[in-house]
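Thread: quick sanity check before group meeting

JM: Hey all, I'm pulling together slides for Thursday and realized we never actually wrote out the predicted structure for the chain we discussed last week. Dropping the sequence here so it's in one place. If anyone has concerns about the input, flag it before I start.
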Amino acid sequence: MDGVLIIDKPAGITSHDVVARVRKIVRERRIGHTGTLDPFATGLLVLLIGRATRLAQFVASEKEYEAVIRLGYATETGDASGKPLSEVVQPSLQMRANEKVMTALSQLRGVIKQVPPMYSAKKRQGKKLYQLARRGESVSREPICVTISAFEALGNGDQLLKENPDKTMDLKVRVVCSAGTYVRTLAEDFGKLLGVGAHLAELRRTRAGDFLVTDATTLERLKRIDDEGFLGTILLPPEAALSRLPFVHLSAQDAQRARHGMAISSPASEWTEGDRVALLDEKQRLIGVASYDAERLLRPRVVVADN
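JM (edit): ok, ran it. Output follows.
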């Protein structure tokens, strides 16, 4: 079983839990995901199955989210699962103005630097940061550069912020960002620009590369489909993971060479050295991914087809 499954992850479980459940349902051990979602978050999780796990490095990395930023207090984790770090401070009338909100959003677009949160899976000297945080430790973290292509308020009306009974204020936003972006940190930094504590109250991934959550399958539905013997109707072919790569159709002879990892002459010249190219056989089945070199050769880097 080789291919791509797109799952709509529920809240309350980890991405690793999703992988474990899918392994049990489809009876395949070789399964990996292409981007972690925190336990409280929901939405799109792209799973690679069988030989398709070799393609993880080539999957488009841009992600899109819908989120709710809660203004009023920060938490130790940066999201609603963490302990509040202070009492609720009601945002001032000036802070609630649409102009202030829009300005703060605009300041966090483009290429920005983020300090990874302590409650994250990023490693420091072999230890995951959240393991240190749970022991009450805090270590210095180097900021990383991320790209925020879109950070905008959702909804219409004169008042973008919605007031809650506890005097906190919610802002629903859309975020399009590069891989490695911490939306929790984005929410905290947004609050700092407005001069108030903030955290992420809700997070839902709606897109990863060209995959959409509207096309995803829940774990419950996956189980029913598998029980009925129709798993093939939702399992996408491995090449679905490479939709943003150029591709080339190979002759039977070149396809056989590529399956054995041998370089082949490139039929095109518009690529530049280092470009990655998907290799397809005469029946449009994926063989693997090659890199284009200065000698105008395609050198296979990952092969997923049988020899």
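AS: nice. The domain at 3-59+212-239 is CATH 3.30.2350.10 (Pseudouridine synthase). The CA atoms of residues 231 and 279 lie 26 Å apart.
JM: adding both to the slides.
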